[in-house]
Amino acid sequence: MKKSIVITLAASLLLLGSCAALKVTPEEKARIAEQVQANLDNRTFEIDVDQMNPRRGMTKAVTNYSVKIDGDKIISHLPYVGQAWNLPYGGGKGLSFEAKISDYIETYPKPDRRVITLSTNNGEDLLVYTFEIFTNGRANIDLRSRNREPISYMGTVVTN
């Protein structure tokens, strides 16, 4: 009994110690915030997606997916899980495409975040992306489509 308690305490201390080692310094936080703001101001930013949240089902971890905004165009490479109503045979382009942005609206609901809403037409569907981007580099993406069930994603803004 005592041995299992000691092992549990030791494991807890190791876990806490490893978390402390991963702590981001204030200088690093400031650098990330500055880089994120600069990217957003230039309308050239990329978000690496690490989670997708379909409306039905559970959150899923994903890798190698991203959305990039480059001036007046969007390059989207996103997975999709959900119901679709009107698609070309075989699924069409899905959420992997490059298209021109038609509307781009920025708001600042709180000092630590920006909300960017943009719409685009990929030739098959009208899509509205809403990005909620925080100064720490984390981002939420809400995606609404005319022909698909809504879905959301979480990820990180790419900084150099």
Quick gist of this model?
It is built from 2 helices and 8 strands.
What does this structure look like?
The protein has 160 residues and is α+β, with helices and mostly antiparallel strands. The protein has a single domain, classed as Lipocalin, CATH 2.40.128. 23% of the residues lie in helices and 47% in strands. The chain contains 2 helices and 8 strands; from the N terminus they run ααββββββββ. The protein has an 8-stranded antiparallel barrel with strand order 1-2-3-4-5-6-7-8. Strand 6 and strand 7 form a beta hairpin.
Assembly context of the chains: single chain
Q: Write down the secondary-structure element order.
A: HHEEEEEEEE
The radius of gyration is 20 Å
CATH class: Mainly Beta
Main sheet summary? 8 strands, antiparallel, barrel
Number of domains: 1
Strand content: over 45%
| Overall pLDDT confidence | 84
Q: Categorize the overall geometry.
A: globular
How would you summarize the topology of this molecule?
Blueprint: H1 2-21, H2 26-42, E1 44-54, E2 60-70, E3 73-77, E4 96-110, E5 113-121, E6 126-134, E7 138-145, E8 151-157
Antiparallel strand pairs: 1-2, 1-8, 2-3, 3-4, 4-5, 5-6, 6-7, 7-8
